[in-house]
Amino acid sequence: MDENSVQEPLLLSEISVKKTSLFVSSVKWILKILMWAIFVAWIGVIFLFPTQFGNGLLEKYIHATSGNPCGITGSLFLVLSGPVLVIAFLSIFHLIISGDEEFQQKKSSKNPGVRLWTFPVLVDGPLGVVSAAEFIGILLFVVYVIWALYAYVFQSLNRISGEDLTLMEGRIMFLKMMGGHLGSMGLFCMAFLFLPVARGSVLLRFINIPFEHATRYHVWLGHLTMVLFTLHGLLYIVGWAMEGNLLQKLLSWKDIGVAILPGVISLFAGLLMWVTSLPPVRKWNFELFFYTHQLYVVFVLGLALHVGDFIFSMAAGGIFLFMLDRFLRLCQSRRTVDIISAKSLPCGTVELVLSKPGNLRYNALSFVFLQIRELSWLQWHPFSVSSSPLDGKYHLSILIKVLGEWTARLRGSIMDISEAEQPASPSQPRPKLTASVEGPYGHEAPYHLMYENLILVAGGIGISPFLAILSDILHRVNEGRPCLPRNILIVWAVKRSNELPLLSTMDLESICPYFYDKLNLEISIYVTRESDPPLEEGDIHNVTVSSVCPMSKGCGMSVLVGTGDSIWSGLYVISSTLGFVILLGILYIFYINPYSISTWWYKGLLFSGCMLASVVIFGGLVVGLWHLWEKKISAREEYEENRLKPGMVQHNEDVANLFQKNHTSITTIQYGSRPDFKGMIPCNARFCLAYVTQQGRFDDMHLMGVICIFCEYKYEIIMTDFKLFLYSVIQNHFQIS
Question: Which residues form the FAD-binding FR-type domain (predicted)?
Fold first, then answer.
């Protein structure tokens, strides 16, 4: 057995590993400590805000900083929105100095450790699987809401008791005061609301939380924010109704003070988004949810007009970071991307190979958003990447299961192209596919390389990200790169045997010859709706291949993505933020202050305009330079060396059967049965898996690992969407005490 045998993980072998210098490690720790200090101070300010002591400190701070050109707006923006922007800047520096560090050997410990981000605390509740870190965050918001309500109720009652009011007047005053306080609480929640949905956010990259997992935080915060804002509006409505001037108040639009009508419009837009985002509505009509959610523009702009500039600045930091991400996504998605090749597999699955520049990096568990303009100009669909970044510098692959109208039309278009290429119809116009791609997104670090033992459980098309994982590991083993996994178990359940050609998209032997000497790999396949193998496999496993885009264009995916080059994305964020400060200062110095502009809603509109202008002007300048740099780098690269050739794709070959013949020692196929996890997965891991599956929480767990610690081993169970299948398995095979 060679030096990289299964007895010793590659990461622990004598192969050279890039070590982090003491200076770089020290700088990273200093940045982390500084970011934590700023974050804790920011949270402390938010918790002190409802108290009289906090209000006193805030008044002293505003008085001390009243000499700045932006006045109270600048003061509040600095202390309430500034921290998240400063943390974003420090995250950029941390990502830059971290570079492409390899994983280093972990210190062995007799006692199993606990990682807050992955250790499950709640596994059987309405929130799905909640890790320890997520539970701490939830607890923090719950404590804040309870604390703020207690403080505000106490203050309101004390103030009312000191006024000479009738019982009715006291009730009305209490409702209005509590309505205002609930609105301020909603603003603080809104400061966090947009951070999780900034797909390429440096904050998400720094804490290594992918966008698809962070979306659940946006959902939780959205519910809390809308509850607070709805109660805010209801208390005012009840108070005005008790006064008898409800309609007059709802339609009022004051210049000095809060403008009510924009707030009503903003709240109505928020309610529409909230109702259509509820699970029953979203599952019934996803497009209704998606298009209604574009009302976030009305929601945010209406809020700015409602409260004015200085109150809106309390939540502007998170909104500004989201605007930066949205503009960059818009720039990236405008480019059309070459489709190098397309395969239509017999199981109704399509494989697309997309062109990309060599300097666009991604991990094996990344995903992209795909638009085909011939099918729809509005629809963007997310797909997991099925290829490893080590498969080739200039392409990536995705597998698409035909499950709906859009995917059916895509497969039909590929078949039409295949027929048009036949010599019998040379005069017909050749169909084409025009693709646009956004991404890739995913984990900042390839976390599947952090564990010696991997259990990959998939159903149907859910195998695609695991093909990328397996390819990545095999490439690393073959090339001698750091790679910790040495025992891999893939459990794959399919309905029918015509889905087996999905394995043909990867040739294990060509990636890593004699890999079975270096890796313990076992693939267990379960065909659940067939009792015996098909008799005529040759007819079943034929693959239709169509080349739909010429190679000569060289039009790859754009590198204009927040998860791309850390230096350029950092310059984009920093320049846009500095541009916003400059534009806001110019606005106050040369317009608002000289002309004594005091209209609240107008100043809120100008504040929002400065945010947008800074992103488009200053950020757009960096994006333009970034694009020119991309073109210059791409011109130096030789596309023909590493790019996938169309001729490399096998035509009409029984590739699934070939895969089975070449790898019978590692592959087992069972017909008419389902996997018995009792013999595969240790009990503690089954416990976590069972509770997750019973509640059907795989939407929350998309490409997310559940780490279960037991005995002397740590396993990474990575799951994809196969709710119904695994739910049935749990019900039939597991007896959980």
Answer: 332-447
